[in-house]
Structure formats: C-alpha cells, structure tokens
Amino acid sequence: MKDMIGYCGLDCEKCDAYIATVNDDNTLREKTAKLWAKLNNAPILPEHINCEGCRMNGAKTVFCDSMCGVRQCALKKGVSTCGDCPELDTCPTVGAITLNNSSAMENLKG
C-alpha cells in the first residue's frame, strides 16, 4: 500500500490540503479554506490548510490531526490503516467514508 493512503483509505495525494502544502500554493489554500469552512460551518483559514499526509510525520490540518475519528481509532488500535483492522467491514466510523468512496475501500483491501 502506498504511504500516502490515509488510515481511511483516501488518497492523501489527491487532497487539496496536501496538494497546496507540497506545492506551496496559497491560492489553493484560500480556495480550500473557503470551501471547507462552508462545508463544516467552521472558521477554517488558509493558514490551516497545511498537511503532509495523515500517516506521515509533519504538518496536518487540525481536523486530520486531532478531530478525525478514523485516524484516532487507527492510532489507538495500532493499525497502519483500517485495512488491517478485523472490524473493517462492519465499522460505522470508516464506513461513513468508504460507503461514499469505493476507491477508499479498494485501497484498504488492495
């Protein structure tokens, strides 16, 4: 499995926060902050849009670092991704992501 696959199976390399970080793209940071603030009804600012991948050392968005239930659960269980967890197929936490994103489940099972 690629290092940039998140605990939940999403591909961090396709995330706008990751792309903005690795390319130091302030325009994308601004666009992403505006969208995420609207979607989450939260005060998300461009300076919050920095992430080097949820399973990697380095910068993470506030959500990915401390609010993501999937990441917190995987860290607690000591699994490298939810694909290593025996509860993958019945877990409602990761299921909220994999239900709407078949590629995430493929990444976890692949």
Low-confidence stretches: none
Helix content: 40-55%
Rg, Å, rounded: 14 Å
Terminal residue distance = 7 Å
Summarize the structure in words:
The protein is globular and about 40 Å long. The protein contains six helices and no strands. 47% of the residues lie in helices and 0% in strands. It has helices spanning 16-22, 26-40, 62-67, 69-77, 92-98, 102-109. α1 (16-22) runs antiparallel to α2 (26-40). The chain is mainly alpha-helical.
Question: Characteristics of this structure?
Answer:
110 residues, mainly alpha, 6 helices, 47% helix
Topology:
Layout: H1 16-22, H2 26-40, H3 62-67, H4 69-77, H5 92-98, H6 102-109
Helix pairs in contact: 1-2
Give a nutshell description of this structure.
The protein has helices at residues 16-22, 26-40, 62-67, 69-77, 92-98, 102-109. It is mainly α and 110 residues long.
